[in-house]
Write a structure and sequence with these properties.
By secondary structure, the chain is α/β, with parallel strands linked by helices. The chain contains 34 helices and 35 strands. The longest helix is centred in the middle third of the chain and has 25 residues.
Amino acid sequence: MKLSMIRSACSSLRIHPRSRVSGLSRRCLPVGPASSRLILRAASDAASRGTNPKLADHFGNQSRKEDGFECDSSLREVVQSTKEAMVALQRRNPSIQPLLAIVQAGEDDSLLEINKKMAGKIGLNITQICLAKECSEDEIVEEVLKLNEDPRVHGVYLHLPPVAVTTRVLDTLKPEKDIDGISDLNMGRLVRGDLSKGFVSPVASAVLDLLEKHDAPLEGKTVLLVGGEGPLGLALQCLIERSGMVALKSNWNPKSLQRQVMQADAVVLLEEGNMDVPPTWFRPGAAVIRCEPTLGSVEHALEMSSKSGLGYLTAAYRAQNVLRSCSRWIQEQQYRPWRLRSLKLQPLMPVPSDIEISRAQIPKPVDQLAQEVGLLPEELEAYGRSKAKVRLSLLERLHTQPDGKYILVAGITPTPLGEGKSTVTIGLVQALSAHLKLNSFACLRQPSQGPTFGVKGGAAGGGYAQVIPMEEFNLHLTGDIHAITAANNLVAAAIDARMLHEATQSDKALFNRLVPSVNGVRRFSPIQISRLHRLGINKTDPASLTPEEVSTFVRLDLDPSKITWQRVVDTNDRFLRKITVGQASTEKGQIRETGFDIAVASEIMAILALADSLEDMKNRLARMVVGTSRSGQPVTTEDLGVSGALAVLMKDAIKPTLMQTLEGTPVFVHAGPFANIAHGNSSVLADKLALKLVGRDGFVVTEAGFGADIGMEKFFNIKCRASGLRPNVVVLVATVRALKMHGGGPNVSAGAPLPKEYIDENLSLVSGGCHSNLRKQIQIAHLFGVPVVVALNVFKTDTEAEIDLVCQIAKECGASDAVPCHHWAQGGRGSLKLAQAVNEAASRASNFQFLYNIEMPIAEKIRTIAQKVYGADDIELSPAAKAKIDYYNQQGYSSLPICMAKTHLSLSHMPDKKGAPTGFVLPIRDVRASIGAGFIYPLVGTMSTMPGLPTRPCFYDIDLDPATEEITGLF
């Protein structure tokens, strides 16, 4: 029988809803046949009797009670101090109960009987795990591994024959739970004299206690340790010598033993030899302690303990160690100050390629980085050496920790070349952490393979401001996008399969297959019961449904022309924009037209970015609407019965990925939704985790896609509504190149040489761009009550006069500050002025406010964004858009926020209109909804959700060296 089965039968072994640990309130009896290998016993009032040995001593006259419990002052002192510490611990942490686990071979109850008395005094909880008497090393290791990972267990005592406590067993046992101090690490700490984290053997502590309180003071006297080459002997030797006594060691050698015993002031017999030591050998008044490593009967153990009290004293010291372990565990759960070790940069001129810079820097091991920023080992799931998933349990652990300051990096309306928001984000956190020594985290979106192999390239930053290793950042990472692809396409497969089966089967046949009879019993699954409840059918017995209810239950009746769900692939593939499915003869004529989106355009990606817990993600996945029935009702993934499976596919993807910058500062990479049809921001969870980790005075810098009119507006109105977080500062990224374009410069195209206007100094074009687009984007940020710092991303073609002019006009337009940034060529040092400006702006009060009330009508919310953000005179709704708005109002979706889908190349809907256009009416050709993600998205113009490849894609230059496995030509 598995131990987990036995444990599950012990109903008292439970975690309190608000607690990580709970004790055992009663003894759990063995479960299963008598031949079962494992038996678990537990007692709430138990303690321990010692590290295997039975202890007997021959001392002078000491006052003892008849029951042997309060044998001397030592025991009373240890019990009293441990009780006081227990009371203090539980006063601060009432839901936590320290727990000791005893692992033993065989079913001898001697330990449990002895421990009951001590537990009653101290309040220690104990669970006893009985393995087979001849248990194997593998069985012991398996048990220890379980106890290592159980947060309820604070101490593990291996009550096993010495031969069973092998090196492998000791290496398996976590040192922080080794309350007997027998692991190599704890022994090393003892030898070194560092007991701040380790433990001293309770047996050694008990023996030393009695030695120190012997009738005749032993300071400066000689203590002979006979036998015992293991941890107990070494621990005693260290403790004795530190107490001012002289420790000598001897084996059971009759030729020399008598002489050594007769000369010693105290003798400790650490193991039973082949001969007895006659009483006549001992000096008069000498202290004698015998430690026998045999596992005897309960009667003998109780007899020995009542004679000497050493068994109880050892149990008291072990209880003290368990309590100390529990206190340390509680302390570890608290917020940890950072001990970040920065990586040094030596920038070269000219600046090498991104991949050459990345490879020249050796990243810290990710577990080391995690430790430096206060993550616990159990909160990390490593994916190789340089990246790891972070578990969401961190939020629970640090839920009382104040958040740090929240910084958003947005931009002016960009050129098709991009203006460097990612490099500014990385440069800023490098400056804050590595140079100003302020805790900071960057939170970035995960790049899609589409642009990586297409025309844009990666999104790891660039130059000396990038995430490393950049190859891993840009290629697959930890597989989140692949999980989204699998989940999305599972929904698509479920849609077509359901339509086929409904079209080719009767109601009865469908019902019999959807609710199959298993062993003669027909039951609804939980997800089917949820569907019945939504249909208003409050029945749980399949046999009780009427024919009408059966038909309503089994038929989704999807309208093929109103299916909104498409398949996805993470590759730019223009020929998948429109496809026809169902052409094989096996599909029985179920042909329909559909298409593919790129994977990051999936609604599941938007959900990943907005969810704030696994439960929230699961609920959002269930709410996703995939189409409409012929009767006009929305059909969800929960109706399809697939939402639980989606949560399973996404359970790991919900954890943010930890990486680092070139200067060793931490980065969370998580989610990457499209910035036009979705909200274009990294995940809520990454931001929340980072805000807890940086501490009250730290900074979390997150990036919004495209210009401030799209990414920033959606960050505020959608992401901040979902997260409840409020930003302190907006960093608005601008380039001289983009400002010249908005000031009237010629068009810029990716892959084409820059016109001379962008290479030569032209203050007129710069001024025009500043007074139009830059001014407008600053004003947009001010609509939300957030201060703005302008970061001018400097290129080598920019002149000092152009740089000074941008900074001057930006301040005149309302920016708190405007500074040039040289992070691409210099790393964090090149963004020091930006970091200082952000730090100063964040110290001022922010008066954040949303742009619109969520309860406003859908059309009014759209109009508010168009007029206040884009500068439009009004909006124009197409008949299709009006019909959709009416439908969403009817379905109860009117209170969702708005996610405008428009071009990122202009503040208006016209890509060629640069600067800050006015006097236009914004056309809304259609309105769609992402119900699971939680927003309505109006379509302004035509939005492509599947990019195409250019004539010469980036993949022409990407290759692999088979000898070194190095990637070449990435960027």
